[in-house]
Design brief:
Layout (H helix, E strand, L loop, with lengths): L9 E2 L11 E4 L13 H12 L8 H15 L4 H14 L7 H25 L12 H10 L3 E9 H11 L9 E4 L8 H12 L6 E5 L2 H10 L2 E5 L11 H9 L4 E3 L5 H10 L6
Parallel strand pairs: 2-3, 2-5, 3-4, 5-6, 6-7
Antiparallel strand pairs: 1-7
Length: 280
């Protein structure tokens, strides 16, 4: 697929007309924040551990493969959906699962131990914020603010945690449209609901909405609503590179552009504002 000359911006769907952006929706983990980098290495052992207690499991190798597939398929969704899948898999193997919310709380306790030093380091000032921000995040948020674009944050992570981590990273103030995240009552929140609310509240052209995300959920939901989807296929370990697995998944979800991070924010916005048709 072509890239914009002189950049790493991959043009997947070159059919957009020039647009005046009015609203921007951001995912959080992996798109702006690296605080939770490595969360899969916390969730996977927990899932394997409890599945191996089920009477009719078929061995560690089969369970590890199942867990790998489950996490890959549900990444970007609310954590409770991953725990609901886990409970179903335990039941299918003859076990008696706990409530999904109990597994979620166990996972979040373990995740906190994984990220505690990062959060506390940010809050104390001992850890520079740029170490845990995706490259270009602040530049993009500043550019959108200068343009009068209303920014929203929508995450599959619990809302209280998203607010606290956004504040620790110094980005909470940019989201004048609100910071949205998962709730224990999972039926009352979804990224699709946030997108629907943005468009309903402002009665705006869907193409005035751009979403930046590294999860298929926000990309797919945005495209379904008629908005512009920029896939931030961040390699969270090796900054500045595209994660091939994310890239493939986000292209399948309908992304218009793919970027390795947000470092080329100016070029991305100029491209959207001038129209992608014929670029590259």
């Amino acid at each position: 697929m072509p890239t914009l000359p002189g950049t790493a911006i991959e043009i997947v769907r070159p059919e957009l007309r020039p647009t005046i952006l009015r609203y921007a929706l951001f995912d959080f983990d992996g798109t702006i924040s690296l605080i939770r980098q490595g969360w899969q290495e916390v969730m996977a052992p927990l899932m394997v551990e409890v599945l191996l207690e089920a009477p009719r499991h078929k061995g560690r190798a089969a369970i590890e493969a199942l867990v790998h597939e489950t996490i890959g398929r549900t990444t970007g969704q609310q954590t409770i959906f991953q725990m609901m899948a886990l409970a179903d898999q335990i039941r299918e193997r003859g076990g008696e699962p706990l409530e999904p919310l109990a597994y979620k709380r166990l996972y979040l306790d373990r995740l906190w131990e994984h990220i505690r030093a990062r959060v506390e380091g940010l809050q104390s000032g001992a850890l520079p914020r740029d170490q845990l921000l995706v490259r270009g995040s602040l530049e993009l948020l500043d550019l959108l603010e200068e343009r009068g674009v209303t920014c929203y944050l929508a995450s599959g992570t619990d809302r209280d945690a998203v607010v606290a981590e956004a504040e620790a990273l110094g980005v909470a103030r940019y989201f004048r449209g609100g910071i949205h995240g998962a709730l224990d009552d999972w039926k009352s929140y979804s990224k699709a609901m946030v997108i629907k609310g943005i468009l309903a509240n402002h009665r705006g052209d869907a193409q005035a909405l751009v979403t930046f995300g590294d999860g298929y959920v926000e990309i797919e939901n945005t495209v379904d609503a008629g908005g512009i989807a920029v896939a931030v296929a961040t390699d969270e370990v090796n900054g500045g590179r595209v994660d091939p697995w994310k890239r493939e998944r986000l292209i399948r979800a309908g992304a218009h552009l793919v970027v390795p991070d947000l470092a080329e924010a100016t070029a991305v916005l100029q491209l959207l504002e001038s129209g992608v048709l014929g670029a590259g």
